[in-house]
# Entry
Amino acid sequence: MVKDVEAVEPAAEYSAKDYHDPPPAPLLDLDELTKWSFYRALIAEFIATLLFLYVTVLTVIGYKSQSATDECGGVGILGIAWAFGGMIFILVYCTAGISGGHINPAVTFGLFLGRKVSLIRAVMYMVAQCLGAICGVGLVKAFQSSYYNRYGGGANTLSDGYNKGTGLGAEIIGTFVLVYTVFSATDPKRNARDSHVPVLAPLPIGFAVFMVHLATIPITGTGINPARSFGAAVIFNNEKAWDDHWIFWVGPFIGAAIAAIYHVFILRAGALKALGSFRSNA
# Structure
């Protein structure tokens, strides 16, 4: 039987005596460029994003090819959502100890705003992720060229019946859910306070990706990851894929920024200050 948290020790006391915020990452850390661990992390992000795009885009194309001849064939939208969420769970689990397991420029951007990574690391991660995405989709096209071109190359496009504002809103909210989950699942304060409840961080992150895909596949095909959208657009290189491509960069970056501000400045900083003011008034 799990004991009540408050009965063990009040949460506020953890922040006072048992928990210390880690120091923020420096804005520019040139020393990183001299460390093998930095380049190892870039390789991990590149390979993880390559594998992510290879498996997920192949799943999308496989579903479309099967459903073209049988409406009930293929894995369906539910299966596609599981492919994206499951791969994120697997890859974050595998790479978290090496690079942090970002696999998404929007996640990297949000963590940069939260002072979790330096500017140099953030920029280089995004480059590695985009290159990995291009290579991953390139492998799909190399192995399944006829199906790839026939079924849209897994590129994100705004679905018929939806305007740009709706698509942008879907990407903003979807990415907010993802990045907010990343901040919450990796929050060291949660680990200190809830140490009696084991939390496997990749699991909620993968589920966040899964749930967002269920909601937004019918609208935009679900981007929430600029590298995923960019890699598919580069390899497919169709005018329709580029028409509204800005949505899949602007939306995720806005959503990530809102999530970072909400978690870092409202939940983590503002809440503690408010608690202190209540205590002083008492």
